[in-house]
Fold this sequence. Notes:
The complex is a heterodimer of chains A (187) and B (344). By secondary structure, chain A is of the alpha/beta class. Chain A contains seven helices and five strands. The longest helix of chain A has 27 residues, at 108-134. Chain B has 344 residues and is of the alpha/beta class. In chain B, 53% of the residues lie in helices and 18% in strands. In chain B, the strands form two sheets. Chain B has a five-stranded parallel β-sheet with strand order 2-1-3-4-5, with helices on both faces. In chain B, helix 3 (64-75) links the parallel strand 3 (51-54) and strand 4. The longest helix of chain B is centred in the C-terminal third of the chain and has 45 residues, at 241-285. The chains are: A alpha/beta (187), B alpha/beta (344).
Amino acid sequence: MQKILIVDDEPVIREILSDILTNIGYDILTAPGGRECMDCLSQIVPDLVLLDIMMEPVDGWQTLSLIRNNQGTRTLLVIMFSGKSPSREEIARYGGWLSDYLMKPLTIETILETLDKVFRRNLSDADIKNHYIQSGGDPALADEYFCLRNRIFLYRKFFGDPGAETEGISSIDETRLKELSHILAAE
Amino acid sequence: MDKKRILIVEDEFIIATSIQAAVEELGFVSVGTTATGEGAIKMAEEQKPDLILMDINLKGEITGITAAGIIKEHCGIPVVYVTGQSDDGTLAKALESDPFGYILKPFRPKELKTSIAIALYKHEMDTIRRKNEQTISALLNATPDPLALIDSGRRIVATNEALCRLLGTTRENLERNSLPDMITGEPFFISDAMLDEIFSSGNHSFNEAVWDKIWYEIVLFPIQYSDGTIVHAVLQLHDITWRKKFEEQLRSEGIAQISHNMEQFQILNDQIRNPLQVLLLLLARGKYKSDPRILEQVKTIDALVGELDKGWVESAKVHSFLLRHYRPPAGDKTGSISLKREKS
């Protein structure tokens, strides 16, 4: 049973969403803000965090940074879930760390599809990573490789282009980039 | 027109009387006669005649030439010499005193009339020219902006105190001389090509320069005379520091305002979308689950909020554009000025 932590300052969203997801079969934790999220993560590490952005005093982006800079939660799956559309700068800066970015409001069907897809992709990502390293890819670049994939995915989703701002592109070689575009096309 | 008043300086009484008679015959008024240079100076100051007919050899200590010099300096009254001496030495001395005429005795009334008329006319022209110069000088000094009137030969014809202060020099050093290095080179850079363009096209030119923390708008505008020729141009260094700072402040305040608007947009959109999300979640759980009309309504509102998002994205573009182009240089410590008007 997959464990999901819902972080949202809107109590009604926390309540109903956890209700529905629990009924479907997910194990749900909730937190009303960034601080509570980190408190929760220090005790239980879930499989995925659904993270709101506009929260006080610690917002979603700050929380995301805290999650990524913490050894125990570094590889945790994170989906942003916000009423605010992302800017190009935000995707450039944080996009690599995200499995997806969901814009409110969404039907429960879309939310469930996304969760499904992210969990499935996570499994295949592990396979791809193994394959990548076994086929002689630089292990140090494996994370960067997936970060790049995430960023390009979000640029395409919100701006319809792969994003010229995508950093770190120089350290991934041409062959890997081609592979990446195949993977993205398949998704 | 008032009759012109004439003083006669002549040491020979009979000649003095006859000149007086001739003068009055010609339609002028005689204010009197005197036989000495000292008397001439005294009467010139008291009577303020329009013109003096002056003999050169006089009774008393001083000559007519000396007296004429003193009168010119103190009273500015034109002097015409009337003398029997025609030797070169006397003539040369007389000319040195810049006389308005020179008549040799004996003369005919017609000669006298012509000489007086020419002298009066010349004096009038001198007066007008002097007044014009004073007017130009007053005009040039009426503005705090450094100004210069320049000719097509790149010489300064006239200038004002402000320019002298700016260049750290005197009017005597500037006027009738070529444009100084500070004008043709750093910081104002008025090139020969620019001046050629002004004098040939008749167009104004505007440039900007900063010197000693003051921003100047460098304005060159040619003066076109009625016959179409352009002989002079005015150079104005207009202080635009206040305007520059004002613009800078507008830019930075504009950026701040856009940032503020962007934040408002984000908060507002998030706040509108949260209840929409709640509605959709309630819908998923409730008895209206199959009713597509509610979903339609939510989509409509979301689409409207999406329009605001677009506005926000546009603002983000404007914001980064402004930051790229108008952020003041890092070393700029000129500070900002208050835009608030003081209450009166």
